[in-house]
Amino acid sequence: LRIRPLTQEDLINLPSRFQRNILSNSPFTPNQVIVHGDKKLTFNFDYVFGPETQQKDIYDTAVRNMVDKFLEGFNVTILAYGQTSSGKTHTMGTSDSVSSNQESRGIIPRALHTLFSYINSTQFKSRKITMKVSFVEIYNEDLIDLLIEGEDENRPQVIIREDSKGNIIWSGLQEIKVNSVEEVMGHLTRGSLNRQVGATDMNSQSSRSHAIFSVTLCQQKQISSNGISSPTAFSRPSTPLTPTKLGSPPSRRLSKTMSMSLDDGEWVSITSKFNFVDLAGSERLKRTAASGDRAKEGISINSGLLALGNVISALGDPSKAKNTTHIPYRDSKLTRLLQDSLGGNAQTLMIACVSPAEYNISETINTLKYANRARNIKNSATVNQEESGWNDLEHLQNLVLKLRAEIKSIR
Ligand code: ADP
Ligand code: MG
């Protein structure tokens, strides 16, 4: 949970009697927030970040260890949830640019900074690495590729498919190869300028769409016959992020997969995907005094978040979970795109963003309840590793011939 400070806009726009701060950290229980409304409510989270929290603190405490996981081969997703102007875009850094102030930079630029410093280190010298980024927006249930240049009509349709292993594939989406933080920031800025923004009463820059910025990392590395990979261990120990929620320890899974290697010096490739999700405002429609087109957007935004809520509820409510076999991923583009990340093969962090002001109390309580349910979701993440050439027919045929010859000689 992140509680933003009162902003200049709040001081100007909110009636002064509703500017009162209604949230506080529990003095006795860590990571518990107290809502001081008509009655006192308490909610527990994995972390509670107060208004004084800096961008760096959020990154170091909650995000950095997920970047380590990503490098190990896990899929990672971070979602920012909350009403308009609660601090989602600020926290994620979705519209940061190369020129934005270092201190105010959000999660995306910080994560990429860490990623590139690892990739350029000697530790990674022996690996072949490619990194690609994509940026997609869901606006009125349409998928829009934010990195495509040129005419609207020529944009290929983005389609969501599922492969034989049940992985979700976003086909038709532009994936751009990147070699530096600056390149990534360039694409991020270009994409966020393409984002649908419209003025509502609540926030003049209000983003009425969900935006998903993704980084795909493909690492090829050589492993030796004893199943130990060449230098991979990270020197810095990472503090686990609520390990019980994140499935089994990675080391065990890693060694298990690797022991399947057949030969000396086998190359394996590990592909992992990092999704940074900046969700549209979660407020109820009437709050934004929307009309016409804007009202239509509001309705479809709510349907995406509603579907997300239903998926979270089906996955996360222990009383329902027993009887639920059907998880309604297909009810919206948003949940379909994030299927892997919600109770699937990913390490997931949801950052609930709230305003401290009494004026927003009902939306704040909605967000706290929603995030609390999301906390019950259990994901099981595994490293996406396979032997190089596993999909290459010629390679496999040669391998069969080689193994046959070996068996023959043994006989
Ligand atoms: P959202 O994306 O949820 O609509 P924004 O991230 O655009 O909200 O935040 C709304 C305003 O509040 C912006 O002007 C932003 O700079 C400011 N803001 C949000 N969070 C913080 C924070 N933690 N510290 C300082 N300013 C913040
Ligand atoms: Mg925003």
Summarize the structure.
With 411 residues, the chain is of the alpha+beta class.
Report on the architecture of this protein.
Helix 2 (55-72) packs across helix 4 (107-119). The chain has helices at 8-13, 55-72, 88-92, 107-119, 181-194, 250-258, 293-316, 318-321, 333-337, 361-374, 393-410, and strands spanning 2-3, 23-25, 32-36, 40-44, 76-81, 128-139, 142-145, 159-162, 168-171, 176-177, 210-223, 266-278, 347-354, 385-387. The protein has a single domain (2-224, 265-393), classed as Kinesin. With 411 residues, it is an alpha+beta fold. The strands form three sheets. Strands 1, 5, 6, 7, 10, 11, 12, 13 and 14 form a nine-stranded mixed β-sheet that branches. The protein binds adenosine-5'-diphosphate and magnesium ion. Residues 226-257 are annotated as: Disordered. Keywords: ATP-binding, Coiled coil, Cytoplasm, Hydrolase, Microtubule, Motor protein, Nucleotide-binding. GO terms for molecular function: ATP binding; hydrolase activity; microtubule binding; microtubule motor activity.
For the record, give the distance between the C-alpha atoms at the N and C termini, rounded to a whole number: 64 Å
Unreliable segments of 5+ consecutive residues? 201-206, 230-262
Number of strands: 14
CATH architecture: 3-Layer(aba) Sandwich
| SSE ordering | EHEEEHEHHEEEEEHEHEHHHEHEH
Gyration radius, to the nearest Å? 23 Å
- CATH-level-4 superfamily name: Kinesin motor domain
Shape: globular
- Into how many domains do the coordinates divide? 1
> Helix fraction?
25-40%
Number of helices: 11
CATH topology: Kinesin
Biased composition (Polar residues): 226-242
Protein name: Kinesin-like protein
Family: Belongs to the TRAFAC class myosin-kinesin ATPase superfamily. Kinesin family.
Region (Disordered): 226-257
